Q: What sequence folds into this?
């Protein structure tokens, strides 16, 4: 029985490539991968009546708009090492529960087992796409003129 058969939530298929940079305002709860989408949202949030011109909308906005630049967090070596230990401990505990001497002590991991656990975590981490983001420290200032150039109204 495969993992997919015993756990139908596991789906091993390639996902979308995440954006290198994401953008957001200090007040944002969700980041976007297209700066023009963010500018459009800033303008939309300032609309009071349907059909208003860019200039009327833009007069309500404090310029320049400061946009934070974010990147997806990476999986550091400390986390990978901890995951490898946790995986190996779990596997050995499960094996010992079913196969070991009930009166004996648990199986101690060998060097080969540790290397295999690390290789597994490295393979998973290589393709894992974190959702969490962190600020890069960069800030992009969008002027009224730049917003007008990208506006589709």
A:
């Amino acid at each position: 029985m495969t993992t997919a058969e015993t756990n139908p939530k596991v789906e091993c298929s390639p996902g979308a490539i995440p954006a290198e940079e994401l953008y957001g305002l200090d007040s944002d709860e969700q980041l976007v991968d297209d700066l023009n989408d963010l500018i459009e949202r800033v303008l939309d949030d300032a609309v009071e009546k349907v059909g208003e011109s860019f200039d009327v909308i833009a007069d309500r906005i404090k310029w320049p708009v400061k946009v934070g630049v974010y990147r997806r967090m990476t999986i550091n070596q400390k986390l990978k090492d901890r995951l490898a230990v946790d995986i190996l401990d779990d596997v050995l505990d499960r094996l010992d529960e079913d196969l070991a001497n009930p009166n004996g002590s648990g199986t101690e991991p060998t060097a080969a087992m540790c290397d295999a656990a690390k290789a597994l975590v490295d393979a998973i981490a290589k393709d894992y796409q974190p959702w969490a983001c962190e600020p890069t420290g960069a800030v992009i200032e969008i002027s009224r003129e730049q917003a007008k150039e990208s506006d589709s109204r």
